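Lab channel / #folding
Pinned by the channel admin:
"Please post every new chain as: sequence first, then the structure tokens as a reply. Keep commentary short and put observations after the output so the thread stays searchable."

First post following the new format, from NK:
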Amino acid sequence: MKAFLSVFLFLLLLPVAQAGQVRVAVAANFLATVKALAPLFEKQSGHELVISGASTAKLYAQIINGAPFDVFLSADQTHLLKLERAGKLVLGSRFIYATGKIVLWSSETILTDESQIVADEFSWFAIANPRTAPYGQAAQQVLKNLGLWQAVKPKLVQGESIAQAFQFVATGNAQLGLVALSQVLNPANTANRQGYWRIPVNLYKPLQQEAALLKHGRDNFAAKHFLQFIRSDAAINIMRRYGYH
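Reply from TO:
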């Protein structure tokens, strides 16, 4: 009986012992999506996600300076290549997990093309900072390729991340902005979710977003499990609902 109780207690405690924690650094554009993925991952695996969102450049700087993240979900490929060269990630763990899209968006007006920008009937235009956010770089490329960069530049308000740029438009502090499609499609967006103009992909470089296992997480089974999970059909279906391909 005593042996039986010992085995029973071992089996009872086993899931707890195997459960792990994953510290995920996630680019601002993907923050809402990873929060949507988290409940499914945690239910399937028993592991816990601890999520930290910011601009890709800010997260990169934190990782370089020793922040204890296990996984990095970047908004581009460049920053992970830099981390690889700096010896901060596990070699061979990089892969593209999503391709992002940007849209011209207003919290109130239905947009179908760039005519609202050309009309110049706005006070402020929001983008993410091109120096810190890949989505800001893409926005700058769009405006330059449309021949509108110099006209819009005096009215620009730049968010530290794409999340802040989105908030400028959502709150009406900027009348127009180039934001992530995923932010507009986010169910938490209570402003305009339909009247956006999807920017033609020939106007900016593809926003291929890479993930990787960081050196801090190299022995973390839960972190490896999470990277497998985001490549699963269930995760991809959720990402598609947020506009990723």
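NK: The longest helix spans residues 2-18.
TO: also worth noting, Residues 6 and 59 are 46 Å apart (CA to CA).
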